[in-house]
Design a protein that fits this description.
Number of helices of chain A: 15
Strand order of the largest sheet of chain A: 1-2
CATH topology of the largest domain in chain B: MetI-like fold
Number of strands of chain B: 0
Order of helices and strands of chain A: HHEEHHHHHHHHHHHHH
Radius of gyration of chain B: 26 Å
Number of strands of chain A: 2
Number of domains of chain B: 2
Oligomer: heterodimer
Largest sheet of chain B: none
Largest sheet of chain A: 2 strands, antiparallel
CATH topology of the domain at 79-243 and 305-323 in chain A: MetI-like fold
Largest interface: A-B, 124 and 117 residues
CATH architecture of the largest domain in chain B: Orthogonal Bundle
């Protein structure tokens, strides 16, 4: 069949067919192209423009030059704090999720019987709606009656205030992140099962132990997947919002919704004030929308660096077809 | 699985006592691996078990650190709907999820089809645009988009989150494309030889073959919208009659001053649909997660 298609006599109708196909492509891609223009291209340009303006949604934006950026860099007491908090999650939570997912994935590959039951169990938490999962953790870690401090009390340890203690709030959220590592684990599991078994057999005959096999066979085979999950992990973590917002509002006992009650964001002591949280507070609670756009542009630059890095290695996850 | 071949093939040439040592060692390893997995599994499941138990407790008992309910209060689940307009939020969530999923399919499947099964100039450029849209944090473009919806008087409702799906969703396009690439080109070629147009091929040949892909992408969209907090919070923050369960649940304790047992009952109610759906469609779902990770 393919032969008849590529043989010379069919070449002329093929060209006509190709022209007709352009119309088809336009028809199929039409809605997406419109969406790209309305919900991506235009807002992107507008964000950059608004970032040089003072804009409160009620009156049209007025040009103020670099003032928003200057305020971000030198005057805003929370901009650097929120950036530092978000970086904390990128540096600690994202790798912790990846490493635990890799170790558990490795364990499940080793287990021959009952593997699928374990897989379901370890995957389950990643399905829990983030709001629900955060509330569950806030309950388990609540200082008074929470199960965690009750358990610590059995061993004579006086548990900390967890989400109400600036030193422990982020680690609790890290634990929550590790608990939901199942989505990453499933990706690793598929990649681990793809590692050619003869490589392990050869290494086993050469007397390589488990650690050496992991270091010299598993890791190199997994590196494209690891790179992909690490970069998407960074980009996801840069957007870290829900868990921090819910945890801080629960610990502070204040709702995140409604009018002026947003002072709880980042409780305790700004420890959970992530970058997107501060952007939301400044833009949609205080209505400094121009400033929120400047923060958006800065977030854009940071994310683009990672996205471009990923796209340069795109062959790793787009498949061989993308090269055509 | 295949791992068993390694010791077995090596063992045939080794003397008997070494063979016995090997099997004993692998049995020990088996026990060690299973006990590690079980211990970790218990830790992983503990939060879900503990909140479910708390959901059945009396409000008095939640003030103690007892883990097992002294008496079982099924009425907690009813009380949730009395204390807060949970039923309205549930309806809103279902509307948000179902409409988004349907709209997404109508617009994203054709785009994914063009991106995976047709050859045209600029295709790779569009693909890069899809991935860039998928990767960029929504906070970057949120202000201009909010302004557009405000100009249309639709802020305060969930429509700003539902309607854009009519114009394609980047993640769904990407996921569907990854799936569609795995369908052999020969199916399309055969239909082309028979004189079918591209639209006929998509409708009659590819869509039936892509049912698992459509299922997985729909489940992803359902999960995303059901779990979404930032979107509904942004647009419906001061319109509690338009909240979704995620937003309602987040402010349930502080706005309605309820005890942990009711909060946990509500939490279980919000988690339940997702978990039930997962068990029904586990295979399609795991396949989808894997495809987002790698291909090639």
């Amino acid at each position: 069949m393919t032969l008849t298609l590529t043989s010379p006599p069919v070449a002329a109708p093929l060209r006509k067919r190709r022209r007709r196909q352009h119309g088809t492509v336009l028809l199929l891609m039409g809605p997406w192209i419109l969406g790209f223009l309305i919900f991506f291209a235009y807002p992107l340009v507008a964000t950059v423009w608004y970032s040089f303006t003072r804009f409160d949604l009620l009156s049209p934006p007025s040009f103020v030059g670099l003032r928003n950026y200057r305020y971000f860099l030198f005057e805003d007491p929370n901009s650097w704090k929120s950036l530092r908090n978000t970086l904390w999650f990128v540096i600690f939570m994202m790798p912790a999720r990846l490493i635990s997912a890799l170790l558990i994935g490795q364990l499940l590959v080793k287990i021959r019987r009952g593997g699928s039951i374990y897989r379901t169990i370890f995957f389950l938490p990643s399905l829990a709606p983030p709001v629900a999962a955060t509330i569950a953790f806030a309950f388990l870690f609540n200082p008074g009656t929470g199960a965690v401090n009750a358990l610590l009390g059995r061993f004579g340890i006086d548990g900390p205030l967890w989400l109400s203690d600036p030193a422990y709030a982020k680690p609790v959220l890290l634990a929550l992140g590790v608990w939901g590592m199942g989505d990453v684990m499933v990706i690793f599991l598929a990649a681990l099962l793809d590692v050619p078994n003869d490589q392990y057999e050869a290494a086993g005959l050469d007397g390589a132990n488990a650690v050496q096999q992991f270091r010299y066979i598993t890791l190199p085979n997994l590196s494209p997947v690891l790179l992909f999950t690490a970069i998407t992990g960074v980009i996801q973590t840069l957007q870290y919002f829900t868990q921090a917002a819910v945890a801080s509002s629960l610990a502070a006992g204040v709702a995140t919704t409604g009018g002026g009650s947003a002072s709880s964001l980042g409780y305790p002591d700004g420890a959970t004030l992530t970058y997107p949280l501060w952007l939301y507070q400044m833009g949609f609670k205080n209505f400094y929308l121009g400033y929120a756009c400047a923060m958006g542009v800065i977030l854009l630059v940071i994310s683009l660096v990672f996205t471009i890095f990923l796209l340069r290695r795109s062959a790793a996850f787009l498949g061989p077809d993308a090269a055509r | 699985m295949t791992a068993t071949q390694l010791p077995l093939t090596a063992v045939t040439t080794t003397p008997p006592e070494r063979r016995r040592a090997r099997t004993r060692r692998s049995l020990l390893l088996d026990v060690a691996e299973h006990s590690t997995a079980i211990a970790l599994g218990v830790i992983i499941l503990a939060p879900i078990v503990l909140i479910t138990l708390t959901a059945f407790m009396s409000s008095g008992q939640t003030l103690t650190s007892n883990l097992w309910p002294q008496s079982w209060h099924l009425s907690n689940f009813h009380e949730v709907f009395v204390k807060a307009p949970f039923l309205t939020w549930l309806k809103n969530s279902v509307m948000y999820s179902v409409l988004s999923t349907v709209f997404m399919l109508v617009s994203s499947f054709p785009a994914a089809y063009a991106l995976s099964r047709l050859q045209w100039r600029g295709r790779n450029f569009v693909l890069l645009a899809v991935i860039t849209m998928m990767m960029l944090p929504p906070q970057v473009t949120v202000v201009p988009i909010y302004r557009m919806w405000a100009a249309l008087n639709l802020t305060g409702t969930l429509w700003p989150l539902i309607l854009p799906n009519l114009l394609g969703d980047a993640f769904s396009v990407f996921l569907l494309r990854q799936f569609l690439l795995t369908i052999p080109q020969e199916y399309s070629d055969a239909a082309r030889v028979d004189g079918a147009s591209e639209l006929q091929i998509m409708w009659r040949v590819i869509i039936p073959l892509a049912k698992p892909a459509i299922a997985a992408t729909s489940i992803f969209m359902f999960f995303f919208t059901w779990n979404d907090y930032f979107g509904p919070l942004l647009y419906t923050s001061d319109q509690s009659q338009n909240w979704t369960v995620a937003v309602g649940l987040a402010s349930f304790r502080s706005l309605h001053h309820v005890q942990w047992n009711l909060v946990m009952a509500a939490t279980v109610l919000v988690m339940l649909p997702v978990i039930v759906l997962f068990f029904f469609a586990q295979k399609a779902f795991v396949q989808g997660v894997t495809l987002t990770g790698v291909k090639g």
